[in-house]
Amino acid sequence: MKTGLFFGSFNPIHIGHLILANYILENSDMEELWFVVSPHNPFKEKKSLLNDHNRLEMVNLAVKNYPKMRSSNVEFGLPHPSYTIDTLAYLKEKYPNHIFSVIMGEDNLKSLPKWKNYETLIKNHQIIVYPRLSEGKAELVLKHENIHLVHAPVIELSATQIRAMIKENKNVRPMLPPEVFDYLDGSSFYR
């Protein structure tokens, strides 16, 4: 089973994430895509994160109508901070019939040399890279036969921007899957 892993805080998951995931599924030989909700990205401050289970619930709500997409809380039970290479080793052992690829934006590709055991990651896994307008050309930074740039739509929508708008009591309905908007609407999350 060819499985793409889209790692992220998903704080919150937004339509940009779904558009990219759907594009990759529809334009590759990938059979499914897992949104891996990360409890703590080593490059981000933990204090800005909504509770792990609230973020997981939002991903569950967002993907419920997409049969090839699912959420994963695999990193919740692994040591923190979460390192992609450790998560992949765990998943490879738990799901030996899956071939895992990692999905990331060009911004993450540029910082990949700072990741734990990044050479092993590239050697053993396909890396699917989607474009980010603000990042320029990633192919100039890192080249490898397992790194594949996809011509997905450029989505310059960020969860940081959405959180700021929620805090300012602005309308974010068009930026979120309807189920996620309903989940957040009326809550005190991000306020």
Chain-wise SSE layout:
Blueprint: E1 2-8, H1 15-26, E2 32-37, H2 52-63, E3 69-72, H3 84-94, E4 99-105, H4 106-111, H5 118-124, E5 126-130, E6 147-149, H6 159-167, H7 178-184
Parallel strand pairs: 1-2, 1-4, 2-3, 4-5, 5-6
Helix pairs in contact: 2-7
How would you characterize this protein structure?
A 6-stranded parallel sheet has the order 3-2-1-4-5-6, with helices on both faces. The chain is α/β, with parallel strands linked by helices and 191 residues long. The protein has a single domain (2-157), classed as Rossmann fold (3-Layer(aba) Sandwich). The protein is 34% helix and 17% strand. The longest helix is centred in the first third of the chain and has 12 residues, at 15-26.
Which of globular, elongated, flat, extended, rod-shaped describes the shape? globular
Which sequence of strands runs across the widest sheet? 3-2-1-4-5-6
End-to-end CA span = 41 Å
From the 3D coordinates, which CATH architecture would you assign? 3-Layer(aba) Sandwich
Short précis:
By secondary structure, the protein is α/β, with parallel strands linked by helices.
What characteristics describe this protein?
single chain, 191 residues, alpha/beta, Rossmann fold, 6-stranded parallel beta sheet, 6 strands, 17% strand
